[in-house]
């Protein structure tokens, strides 16, 4: 009988994955989730947010993808504002992946979706059409967003999709690499909503 006493045997062993937890109590099967809210539910992310917070959230997604691709041999296949969450400690979490075997082509699709996610966070809108417009130069602020646009172009390059390692080593994360500091500032800004 499954129990919530030993949660690390029920949860996936990665902090950046929001997982369904199967629990059996008195012969009844139920599913629980970790308490978290999708990015789409926060007005900060619907209006478009600062590149510091984007780098923090996207790095959390990349950490989850590294685990999903490498350890579980799966791809996610649906990375967007509805499937990325923040928990009460402002950890970025990616909803559990689709159960799909991992192939290089599919991994590349996940990488491209990360580029689209970065644009969605910056502009406050989802969708590939808007993403392509942004990469072409139509951002929400004319004097802002160069780093996130460069990162998105890198991920969305139709001629050569980068590897996950190359994406994690992109200059975007070197520019905005103070993730602990961003977590605390984001937690403070969203304090009442988490």
Automatic annotation (TrEMBL):
One of its GO terms (molecular function) is protein kinase activity. Residues 1-194 form the Protein kinase domain. SUPFAM superfamilies: Protein kinase-like (PK-like). It comes from the Eukaryota. This is Protein kinase domain-containing protein.
